[in-house]
Amino acid sequence: MGQTTGIRFETVFLSNNSPDDERTNQLIYWAQRFDKLGLAPKSAGNLSFRTKRGFVITATGVALRAAEKENLVEVLRVEIEQAQIVLYVKGKVVPSKESVLHSGIYGSRPGISAVFHIHDQLIVELADELKLPCTEGEQPRGSYELVKEVDRVLRLTEDTKYLVLKNHGVIAMGETLEEAGRLAESMNKMARKENKGRG
Ligand SMILES: [Zn+2]
Fold first, then answer.
1. How far is ligand 1, taken at its centre, from the CA of residue 97, in Å?
2. 165 alpha carbon to ligand 1 midpoint, in Å?
3. Could you point out which of 35, 116, 159, 175 has its C-alpha 20 to 30 Å from the C-alpha of 110?
4. pLDDT tens by residue, 8-52
5. In angstroms, what CA-CA distances link 48 with 31, 127, 198?
6. From CA 148, how far away is CA 123, in angstroms rounded?
7. Among candidates 197, 162, 198, which has minimal Cα distance to 39?
8. Which tens digit of pLDDT belongs to each residue from 175-189?
9. Among positive and negative, which fits the CA dihedral 139, 107, 42, 7?
10. Sequence-distant (≥ 6) Cβ neighbours of residue 84 within 8 angstroms
11. pTM of this prediction?
12. Residue 147 C-alpha from the chain's centroid
């Protein structure tokens, strides 16, 4: 957090209407649940689901516990040019800085319709021990380097729906929001059991 990436973000609002999709309720449910379960320290993280034209994602600078319809935003287009990223959106708020990461995952995984990024500290600690797919090195949060590294890992592990961002957090994917949410939750349960077992 707080690392500078040298990348400039710009958000272009194509409309100020907040996303009107019934799945926003599920997104809000999981945002609050991860906060409650302690999987999102400082209530930070970003959750999204795919739409016909792009994806709906949580806002930048809004705590997960405070997620509500009015502070979700639909990203319709992501343009990347050298040190400038332009997001074309529908909504009232600035989308998560990790929108490019979400966009990359939807691009490389056509079957995936939900991407949840949270900061499960126990999983991050135990990633090696649990032999989970994990990024190499540590890329700045919100950086294009991170997007490229995640893409590399996804290519190596074609059917994985869960991966660790080294020293940072995790990404759970699903064909539905429920699948992604349950996966993130059950991985944490598994890690807690493993941790206890170590005595
Ligand atoms: Zn993060």
1. 9
2. 8
3. 35
4. 889 999 999 999 999 999 999 999 999 999 999 999 999 999 999
5. 10, 23, 34
6. 22
7. 162
8. 999 999 999 999 999
9. positive
10. 7, 8, 10
11. 0.94
12. 11
Task: Give residue 58 CA to ligand 1 midpoint distance, Å.
Answer: 13
Structure tokens at 186: 């059950």
Place of tokens 């206890």: 196
Tokens coding 155? 């290519």
CA–CA distance, 72 with 28 (Å, rounded to integer) = 9
Q: Is 6 left (phi over 0), alpha (psi -120 to 50) or beta?
A: left
CA angle 71/30/189 to nearest 5° reads 150
- Residue type for position 151: D
Q: Is 179 left (phi over 0), alpha (psi -120 to 50) or beta?
A: alpha
